[in-house]
Design goal:
about 400 residues, six-stranded parallel sheet, binds D-Mannitol-1-phosphate, 2 domains, binds nicotinamide-adenine-dinucleotide, single chain, 16 helices, globular, EC 1.1.1.17, Mannitol_DH_N, Rossmann fold, N-(1-d-carboxylethyl)-l-norvaline Dehydrogenase, domain 2
C-alpha cells in the first residue's frame, strides 16, 4: 500500500500497458500509483494485494522470463467511486491514462470535476496530465474533452480557466512497449495481476507542456521538445508494421500470433516494405538519419518475432476503423508519402489487408465489413484514400482475397 509521503500518480486503466509499463515506471521513479478502472475484480485485487509482478520476456529461452520485477506502492480505486474525485483534487501530482482513445471522452467529466474542486480548494502544487494512448495528440484530445465539461462563461469560470493554465500541464507523449493479452489465471476465481511484457520500453513526454517542478523526475522517461517526431516515428513505423502483420496474419489463421505471422517471408516482405516506405517519408519530414531509421526498423522486426510474447493478431488488429483513421498508422504515412511524392505500394497493401479484416468478435471489424457491403468496395476505398491511391488499394484487395493462400 502507498505511503502518504510519496508523490501520487493516479492512472486510469489498469490493463496491459497500465500495469505492464506506466505503473511500474512511475513506481520506480518514486511515485505511489493509484490505479483506477471500471473493472471491479482488477481494482479489488490491486487494492487487497498492493503488489504484483511484471515478467520480462525476451526471445532467448522460450517460456522463461529474463527478469521478474515486483511492483509495490500500488493501490486501486473504482473509477465510479466518489472518493476518486477527492484523491484527484487533493493529492494527485500526475494523472496518466491508458484506456484506449475512445474512452478519453468518458473519463473527462471526472477529471473536470476534480479540477474544479482543486481550484476551489486553492491547491497550488503542479498537476500534470499525460494520456498514454496510441495516437497523435491524445492528451490534447483529453484536454479538449475536459474543458468541454467545465462551466461556461462567468467570472468564476474564467478564474477556473486561469487556475488550470497556471497549475495544470497537459503533455502529449509517445509510449512504446509491447504488452500482449495476459493469460487467464489457472484458478478461475482469482484475478492474476501479473503482466508479461517485452524488455523494450520507451516513454517520451512533451517537456515544454509539463508544469514544473515534478515532485520527483520520471527517471526512465525521455523529455523532449520534439514530440511530434517521436510519436509519428513510433505510430507510423512500429504500429503501422504491427497492424499489417496482424491483418495479413489473420488472413492466414484467425488465431495466429504476431511472431508466427512475421515468420512468413511473404508477410515480412510487405511489413518491412511498408515500414521502409513510411521511413522514407518520416526522414524527409523529421530529418532522421537513414542508418538510424534502418536499425529502428530492424529492431522492430526482432521485437515482432519474440516467440515468448504470443501476441494475438486479433489484439494487434483490434479496432480497424480507428486504425484506418486519417492520421493513424496506415493513412497517416500514406498521406506523408503522397505529399513527398514517394512510393507507397506496401502501405497500400496494408490498407487492403485492413479492409479484409473480417472478425465477428471485433465490433469495428463488423461495422467496417457492413460499410464495404453497403457502399461497395470501390466507393469506400475512394473515400478512404482518394482517387490517386484507390487503384493500388483495390488491386491489392483483389490479390489478397478473403484468405491468404501462401505458396
Ligand atoms: N498493450 C500495448 O502493447 C500498448 C502499448 C502502448 C500503448 N498502448 C495503448 O494503451 C491503451 C490501453 O491499451 P491496453 O493494451 O492496456 O488495453 P487494455 O484493454 O488491456 O486496458 C485498458 C483498460 O482500461 C479500462 N477502462 C475502460 N474504460 C474505462 C473507464 N471508463 N475508466 C477507467 N478505466 C477504463 C479497461 O477496463 C482496461 O482495464 C490503448 O490506447 C493502447 O493503444 C497499448
Ligand atoms: O493498441 P492499439 O490497438 O493502438 O495497437 C495495437 C498494437 O500495435 C499496440 O498496442 C502495440 O503493442 C504498442 O503500441 C507497442 O508499443
Amino acid at each position: 500500500m502507498s505511503s502518504s509521503t510519496e508523490p501520487l500518480a493516479i492512472h486510469f486503466g489498469a490493463g496491459n500497458i497500465g500495469r505492464g509499463f506506466i505503473g511500474p515506471i512511475l513506481v520506480e521513479a518514486g511515485y505511489s500509483v493509484l490505479f483506477t478502472d471500471v473493472n471491479k475484480d482488477v481494482i479489488r485485487a490491486i487494492h487487497s494485494n498492493g503488489a504484483y509482478d511484471v515478467h520480462i520476456l525476451d526471445n532467448k529461452e522460450v517460456g522463461k522470463p529474463l527478469e521478474d520485477i515486483n511492483v509495490t506502492h500500488v493501490d486501486g480505486i473504482l473509477s465510479t467511486s466518489p472518493e476518486l474525485i477527492d484523491r484527484l483534487a487533493e493529492d494527485a501530482d500526475i494523472i496518466t491514462t491508458a484506456v484506449g482513445p475512445f474512452v478519453l471522452a468518458k473519463i473527462a467529466p471526472t477529471i473536470a470535476k476534480a479540477l474544479q474542486r482543486r481550484a476551489e480548494m486553492g491547491v497550488r502544487k503542479p498537476l500534470n496530465i499525460i494520456a498514454c494512448e496510441n495516437m497523435v495528440g491524445a492528451t490534447k484530445q483529453l484536454q479538449e474533452h475536459i474543458l468541454g465539461h467545465l462551466p461556461g462563461s462567468s467570472q468564476s469560470s474564467s478564474d477556473l480557466h486561469d487556475y488550470i493554465s497556471e497549475h495544470v500541464g497537459f503533455a502529449n507523449c509517445s509510449v512504446d512497449r509491447i504488452v500482449p493479452p495476459q493469460k487467464a489465471s489457472s484458478n478461475s476465481d482469482a484475478v492474476d495481476l501479473d503482466v508479461a511484457v517485452e524488455p523494450f520500453h520507451e516513454w517520451v513526454i512533451e517537456e515544454t507542456a509539463l508544469k514544473q517542478p515534478l515532485p520527483v523526475p520520471i527517471r526512465d522517461a525521455k523529455l523532449t521538445s520534439q514530440l511530434t517526431a517521436y510519436i509519428e516515428r513510433k505510430l507510423y513505423t512500429l504500429n503501422c508494421g504491427h497492424a499489417i502483420t496482424a491483418y495479413l496474419g489473420f488472413l492466414q489463421s484467425k488465431s495466429s500470433t504476431v511472431d508466427v505471422s512475421i515468420a512468413n517471408p511473404r508477410i515480412r516482405r510487405v511489413v518491412e516494405g511498408a515500414m521502409k516506405e513510411s521511413g522514407a517519408a518520416l526522414r524527409r519530414k523529421h530529418g532522421f538519419r537513414e542508418e538510424d531509421h534502418a536499425s529502428y526498423v530492424q529492431e522492430i522486426l526482432t521485437r515482432f518475432a519474440n516467440p515468448n510474447l504470443k501476441d494475438d493478431v486479433a489484439r494487434v488488429g483490434r479496432g480497424p476503423l480507428r486504425k484506418l483513421g486519417p492520421a493513424d498508422r496506415l493513412l497517416g504515412p500514406i498521406a506523408m508519402c503522397r505529399e513527398f511524392g514517394l512510393k507507397r505500394d506496401s502501405l497500400l497493401m496494408g490498407v487492403a489487408a485492413a479492409l479484409r479484416y473480417n472478425n465477428p468478435e471485433d465490433e469495428e471489424s463488423v461495422k467496417l465489413q457492413g460499410m464495404i457491403r453497403e457502399r461497395g468496395v470501390e466507393a469506400y476505398v475512394e473515400e478512404l484514400v482518394g482517387k490517386e491511391d484507390m487503384g493500388g488499394v483495390l488491386k491489392a484487395y483483389k490479390e489478397l482475397g478473403p484468405r491468404l493462400y501462401l505458396i
